[in-house]
Design goal:
heterodimer; A: six-stranded mixed β-sheet; five-stranded antiparallel β-sheet; B: seven-stranded mixed β-sheet; globular
Chain lengths: ~110, ~120
């Protein structure tokens, strides 16, 4: 069973506009969430994280929102740039129970058009 | 500070052989985790090592094993390779300041692309 789901396999956005990537999870034990960006044949690059005690975390152009009641998180990129084109993965961990084990979603391919 | 390094970057093996992949974590990081990425299954957790001990294990057969050395460097081994083991194998390291309770972000290496013929 997929505990972390990214239901949109791809997203196309115009340069300068907002990109919103979504992620849903089912395991209520997850208490830490991360977003990674990945280019082909490279390892994922950490973007931003959020603990379950918060509902928002911001870092420059990237903001992550967490809605615990809906078991949903989203990543907002404003403004979007062509260099943001990549595959974005959301990941979750249940730190109290499972240490550093990350469960990943299937990824969303973001294409930012100039 | 240097990032996570993995060697080799590319590897071609034949079915039935075994392979050993190496990972050097970021300096000072004590936890090393391994993941497998395939087109069909996505990114899946293999195992985590902390202080030379396996702390967590994913749902993979016993052909997949690993170890961690006293300098935190880690190796993973796959024995009796199968075609389905072709994948990108990723290593990630984290600081683990809090000890048992992991609160630290994992930073990934570039991966080793394994092809099994």
């Amino acid at each position: 069973d997929q505990q972390v789901k990214q239901n949109s396999p791809s997203l196309s956005v115009q340069e300068g506009r907002i990109s919103i990537l979504n992620c849903d999870y089912t395991n209520s034990m997850f208490d830490y969430f991360l977003w990674y960006k990945k280019y082909p044949a490279e390892g994922p690059t950490f973007l931003i994280s959020i603990s379950s005690i918060k509902d928002k975390n911001e870092d420059g152009r990237f903001t992550v929102f967490l809605n615990k009641s809906a078991k949903h998180l989203s990543l907002h990129i404003v403004p979007s740039q062509p260099g943001d084109s990549a595959v974005y993965f959301c990941a979750a961990s249940a730190r109290r129970n499972a240490g550093n084990m990350l469960t990943f979603g299937g990824g969303t391919r973001l294409m930012v058009k100039p | 500070k240097a990032g996570v390094t993995q060697t080799p970057r590319y590897l071609i093996k034949t079915r039935g052989q075994q392979v050993t992949l190496s990972c050097s974590p970021i300096s000072g990081h004590r936890s090393v985790s391994w993941y497998q990425q395939t087109p069909g299954q996505g990114l899946q957790f293999l195992f985590e090592y902390f202080s030379e001990t396996q702390r967590n294990k994913g749902n993979f057969p016993g052909r997949f094993s690993g170890r961690q050395f006293s300098n935190s460097r880690s190796e993973m081994n796959v024995s009796t390779l199968e075609l389905g083991d072709s994948a990108l194998y990723l290593c990630a390291s984290s600081l683990v300041v809090a000890g048992v309770s992991s609160t630290d972000t994992q930073y990934f290496g570039p991966g080793t692309r394994l092809t099994v013929l």
